[in-house]
Design brief:
This protein has one domain: 3-Layer(aba) Sandwich (Rossmann fold), CATH 3.40.50. 27% of the residues are buried. The protein is mainly alpha-helical. Helix content is 53%, strand content 10%. It contains seven helices and three strands, in the order H-H-H-H-E-H-E-H-E-H.
Length: 155
């Protein structure tokens, strides 16, 4: 199975565009860094759509993000492996608690871009790096890559 990163990247950028209207941590920073508005406008132009054709997704994406975050909080999870994490940066927010180990996994190109973004945000907001956020390359359909992604967890 071949994966077209260009399509995934567009999806990640559109999700970032939609999330910028919320109070999700780092959402506006991510949208700006990824130039998500350009991706959104290009999609509209290329497909002869209007903003109202897509903006109804914004509250759904916000609720999805927040419901996952709330579930992690309610469960008091201290070890989280997020598959196909995109640019949510939930791990960056959650790992300000040094007791939480968070692994964000995605495809290589996206993970490289996200690592740079996380480094920039740590500097910009003077965020501590407790060594508990792990950005790893892992295809969610590859068992050996998932095993490797889970290595930071304790038994």
């Amino acid at each position: 199975m071949t994966v077209n990163f260009k399509n995934i990247s567009l999806t990640a950028r559109l999700t970032a565009y939609m999330r910028q209207y919320s109070d999700i941590p780092f959402a506006k920073d991510v949208a700006n860094r990824l130039r998500a508005e350009e991706a959104f406008e290009k999609l509209l132009r290329d497909n002869e759509l209007s903003p109202k054709d897509l903006l109804w997704y914004a509250p759904l994406l916000e609720v999805r993000y927040k419901s996952v975050a709330e579930t992690i909080r309610k469960l008091r999870a201290t070890q989280v492996l997020e598959l196909a994490s995109g640019f949510s940066l939930r791990g960056l927010a959650v790992t300000q608690d040094p007791k939480v180990t968070y692994v964000e996994s995605d495809l290589e190109e996206l993970t490289e871009e996200k690592a740079s973004l996380v480094a920039d945000l740590r500097r910009q907001y003077r965020l501590a790096d407790h060594g508990n956020l792990h950005l790893v390359t892992a295809d969610a359909l590859d068992r050996s890559q998932l095993r490797s992604a889970a290595k930071p967890f304790s038994a």
